[in-house]
Amino acid sequence: MHHNSPWTESPFFESELEKSDLSPEMKEKVRFYSENGYLIIDPEIPETLLDEAREGLLSEFSNRKSTRIQDIWKENEKVRQIAIAPKILDLLQVLYRKKPIPFQTLNFNVGTQQRTHSDTIHFDCIPQRFMCGVWVALEDVKQDNGPLHYYPGSHKYPIYNLLDMGIMGSASKSMEDSLSRNYQSYEDFIEEFVKVKKLTPETLHIKKGQAIIWSANLLHGGNKIERPGATRHSQVTHYYFEDCVYYAPLLTDMAIERINIREITDIQTGQKVKSSYNHRPISNTGYSYKVYLPTHILRTVVPESLRKRVKSLLFR
Ligand SMILES: O=C(O)CCC(=O)C(=O)O
Fold this sequence. Notes:
Blueprint: H1 13-19, H2 24-36, E1 38-41, H3 47-64, E2 68-70, H4 77-83, H5 86-96, E3 100-108, E4 124-126, E5 131-137, E6 148-150, H6 175-196, E7 202-203, E8 211-215, E9 220-222, E10 234-241, E11 245-247, E12 264-265, E13 272-273, E14 276-277, E15 280-281, H7 295-301, H8 304-314
Antiparallel strand pairs: 1-8, 2-3, 3-10, 4-11, 5-8, 5-10, 6-7, 6-9, 12-13, 14-15
Helix pairs in contact: 3-4
């Protein structure tokens, strides 16, 4: 039975799995991902590529005086190659039954010590859950250099957004604005959620070259760096899947039609990818709604016929 979600998160997953012609070994992996919301894999990326990516970014980290570099794939071919590693793309195709679209890279030289969150607060889509992160270790990750933690099975909980905290995302002027005004409330909410649900984290100790795939709603974060000065080179690539509406929940209020649609670039092709709704491409992106004009003013000054025309153009 078709359900418009990743099949691994569908109510009909078990029967779909039985019907599939995957090998028994692959079936085990897919079932593990379905139940736990993550999968640790060996993406078989050549060691030289991992080393060259890491070495190539050393000066970038020190020049920028930053521990986090976003989207350097545009300049750094090694980073791009990691994002589009064939084993990763093939496996994501199996796990999601849609073409994966790598759209963002983040490179870190040390542990992020990020508080627990799920990526759905940053990158959601319609239909939901067609998003995942793949985190590749560019050096061994141990107890003391700020390993990743994650909560197995937590992807099965509801997707929370700012409205669950009583906050309107579309009231923010920019992503930076929403992050600085709202993100701590979200993190506090998730911390409390983990406490009341008594969730138990696992810690990711993996060798250089290994990777974890986390599903959109899996709770995860970075542990404390216990050894001061310890490096932890790693790369996260975020993937969406084709034929979805990609949007930023931190700037969105769905019910009042203020949806901040993301324009994404497919790292594999370098081409922009338009959001699409049930196979219909839609062209509006970003603040395509009027954020600063209250709706009642819009209603009075814009004739109904014009509003309808604009809408029909937007959703051609
Ligand atoms: O690398 C880490 O420590 C955490 C990264 C993370 O949580 C993320 O990229 O969403």
